[in-house]
Structure formats: structure tokens, C-alpha cells
Amino acid sequence: MQISQAKLLDMYRNMKLSRMTEQRLDFLYKQGRLPGAIYPGIGQEASYVGCTLALEEGDTITTTHRDLAALLSRGISLEQVMTQHFAKENSPTGGRGEDNYFGDLGKGIFAGVSMLPDMYPVAVGSALYFKRKHMANVAMPFCGEGATARGDFHESLNWAAVFNLPVVFIVVNNQYAYSTPNTIEIPTEKVADRAKGYDIEAYSVDGNDVLDVYKAAKKAVDEARNGKGPLLIEARTMRMKGHAGHDGAEYVSEELLAEWAQKDPIERFEKYLFESGDLSVEKKSQVETDISGSIDKAVDFAQQSSYPEPDTLSEGVFHD
């Protein structure tokens, strides 16, 4: 598969944007300046960016607490991210939330919920809508490997398979469901093997290789768009931080983290881009400078924004 330089640099910018944004959120959280929690996806950027960049306008995604990279690559702004985490009135949730549980229907992003993978059935519903309306669009729901043990995961795969819906299920296997390792939560060799019972084609890819992820996602999305769906992709990666900002992840061995640190998705892709001539030291520095400046502006904007007024508490409970 031939990938243009523009697409390669788009992948790089999106991964750097997510990494640098999460590093800033981690810094703000540790300073006690954020009212809520953070759920870092550091180390998993390639899994999200490689999948979402295979989508087109009009396609939909559903995400979880850790999927900031997917939100950003589908068009969520840094101002939306920062006002959300500072719980300001002009945030996507009007100051009611302070984490990644938000979306933007105008961009095809359904707001996630904390019970995983409750958004899988929602994605299947959007895929059913696409099929009934004869629309050439695809739904892409995300979840972690821990969520594949729940009934709604299997119900979603079953429904999508029975009705041959245009949906590409993404399972980001980051080795731990909070503190539970793969070895005692999944009976199959690969998470992708769970799709066999529904006669769904599934790929298990290196989730730290953005090119490997993108190629698999592009193939799956194209097939789903052309009536051959559903499909499933397992992206094998590693959660390099704790479950949340408060979690030190003492249950993960230093040896395992060191092993995965050698496979950092951004460092690997930078090496590839330098060797191919698609990235220079100057370009890399410019990307980092631009992103850092944009993050600074978004943080300032959020800090200067107002908190919601108490008398608005009951607003937003029901759809207006």
C-alpha cells in the first residue's frame, strides 16, 4: 500500500499532538489544577491514529476514557479538551465532566460512558442506520481487551454479523484491564480470536507500528464500506502509565515496561520518517513548537473561561 507523504506527516503530527497534550494534562493533574481524573493513553497513540486516519468524513467513532488520540485525530480541538478537563461552562459537557467522556456529533463522535463497552451497541446502531439509509459510511467503536469479556461486546458482534453491518470493531489490547493482566482475563491466544465465533474476519496487528495499524484499518474500512463488514482489529500495545493519574501501576514489572519502552510508537515512526527522508530535524522541531504553542493557548483559554453557574445544574439532563 502506497502512503503519501502528506498522510505520513499527518500520522506523525497526530501522534505527537496526543502525546504532548497528555503530558501537559499529566503535569496539570500533578499540580492539582484539574478537578477530575486523567486516563493516559501514552504509548498507545499509534493504535488510535492508525485506525482513525483510515476513516472518511461522515464515518462515526465511539471512544473510551483513554482514547484522546482518537478524539484529536477526528477533529476535536485542544480548546474542547482543555475546557473539558478544567470543567468549564464552555466545555463539551458544560462543566459536568472533567475527563475524556465527551464527543462531538458534528464530527461523528459519540460521547463515551464509563461502563465499557457500552458504546459498542451504539456504534452498531449507527452502522444499522447507514445500511438502512444506503449510506456509504462506516462505524468504528473502540474498547480495551478487558471489555471483550462483557456481554454487550458479544451481543454487538453477533448483531453486526447477522445483519452484515458496516462496522469495524477496534480492540486496543494494552495488556492490562486496570490491574488484571491478559494472562488471567483472556482464554484465547489473541483477543482477535474472539471474533471467530461470529464468523467475523479479524486482524491482530502491532499496535505500536502506526503503518501496520493504518494498513489493516484501511483494508477493513474499505471492505466494510463496500458491504463486506463487519470486521475486527486487535491492536497490541502497552499502557505505559497507570490506569489513571492516581494509579502508580506497581503491579506492572519494570522489566515489562522497559521492554515496551523500546517499542515506543512515536520514536519508531520518527526513525522511519528520518530514514525515508519524509522528516528532518527542522521539521520535527517545528511540529513540536507549533503543538506546544497551541497547547499553551488552549490551557490559557480554559483557565480564563468561567465555571458553570449553580442554577444551571438541571440543564442538559434531557435532550432539548
TrEMBL record:
<dbReference type="GO" id="GO:0006086">
    <property type="term" value="P:pyruvate decarboxylation to acetyl-CoA"/>
</dbReference>
<dbReference type="GO" id="GO:0004739">
    <property type="term" value="F:pyruvate dehydrogenase (acetyl-transferring) activity"/>
</dbReference>
<keyword id="KW-0560">Oxidoreductase</keyword>
<dbReference type="Pfam" id="PF00676">
    <property type="entry name" value="E1_dh"/>
</dbReference>
<feature type="region of interest" description="Disordered">
    <location>
        <begin position="301"/>
        <end position="320"/>
    </location>
</feature>
<protein>
    <recommendedName>
        <fullName>Dehydrogenase E1 component domain-containing protein</fullName>
    </recommendedName>
</protein>
<feature type="domain" description="Dehydrogenase E1 component">
    <location>
        <begin position="14"/>
        <end position="310"/>
    </location>
</feature>
<dbReference type="InterPro" id="IPR029061">
    <property type="entry name" value="THDP-binding"/>
</dbReference>
<dbReference type="InterPro" id="IPR050642">
    <property type="entry name" value="PDH_E1_Alpha_Subunit"/>
</dbReference>
<dbReference type="InterPro" id="IPR001017">
    <property type="entry name" value="DH_E1"/>
</dbReference>
<keyword id="KW-0786">Thiamine pyrophosphate</keyword>
